[in-house]
Amino acid sequence: MTVVVTGASGHIGLNLVRALVAEKRSVRAVVHHNHQVLDGLGVEIVTGDVTDMASLPRALEGADVVYHLAGVISLLRNEWPLVEKINIQGTRNVIEACRSSHVKRLVHFSSIHAINPEPLDVPVDENHPLIQGHRYPPYDLSKAEAQREIRKAVAAGLNAVVVNPTGVFGPYDYQPSFFGTALLMMANGQMPALIDGGFDWVDARDVAQGAILAEQKAPSGSEYLLSGHWVSMREIGAVMQEISGSSIPGFVCPMPVARFGAPFVTAYSRIFKKRPIFTSVSLNALRSNRNISHEKATRELGYQPRPFKETLTDTMKWFAQNGNLKCRLK
Length: 330
What we know:
With 330 residues, this protein is an alpha/beta fold. It has a domain at 2-176 and 200-230 and 290-306: 3-Layer(aba) Sandwich (Rossmann fold), CATH 3.40.50.720. The chain has helices at residues 11-22, 56-60, 80-100, 138-155, 178-187, 204-217, 233-244, 255-271, 280-285, 295-301, 308-321; strands at 2-6, 26-31, 44-47, 63-68, 105-109, 160-165, 167-169, 194-195, 198-203, 223-226, 229-232, 252-253. It has a seven-stranded parallel beta sheet with strand order 3-2-1-4-5-6-10, with helices on both faces. The protein has a three-stranded mixed beta sheet with strand order 7-9-11. The chain has a two-stranded parallel sheet with strand order 8-12. Helix 4 links the parallel strand 5 and strand 6 (160-165). Helix 1 crosses helix 6 (204-217) and helix 3 (80-100) runs parallel beside helix 4.
């Protein structure tokens, strides 16, 4: 049985491919760029672009299962054309390709950001509606719209399930991700202050396993929140200091001050051609709902996220092995 993974060279994609290979599955990795990170894993590598419909029939030929991860993450408010093209139209293309290739099951990776977190004092679960309206960032809206496309396809007969991870981190973060970059800044003494906020963080390996469980167990049309643990930036700093010995900033910047400075930090990053990490979008996320429930995934799939400290330790060990750390871990 052939399993196709779009976005296979991304952070979650790499962890998913490794998990599938460990289960002795026959994996075809669809990549747009950077296939080198997949070398040596024993998978078939195919060049493909979800925005190019003509490239998808060959990529999905003979596939029984497709995991759709290809997408772009944005922390800016001016990138709607980019996220619309890749996250929404790309998902429509994958749906159509699955139909024409007679794929038996599609597993779509959405995001916690597609789901309305309000009211903030009520736990977020699968019954919460998808977001809509221009007050939300482009990336969040694109993931919500893509999830609606999956729902339409299911209603029309496509066998598909959806997983909504929270803030993902973990090993095999080659790019690195936005949160991975923040962790490296923290460990390498490049972060002048911590932010007064936090988020629900989940191990990329647990997300991969949760998606595999959904593929194998879930009825068509099912949607699952794959959350982990809400941890503040202050607490992350304390654990980082414990495992690395790094000198973590003692100053915790109040959120109003951070929000005031965010436009200047974003402008600075653009001038020096760096990816902005702390933008108005990411700061709003750090003030969002603290209680993201994975009770449905645990009950129906057996999903169990590992402890936060274990993931952070494994992540920093992986960064150290790949030469990203200036300090030595304890």
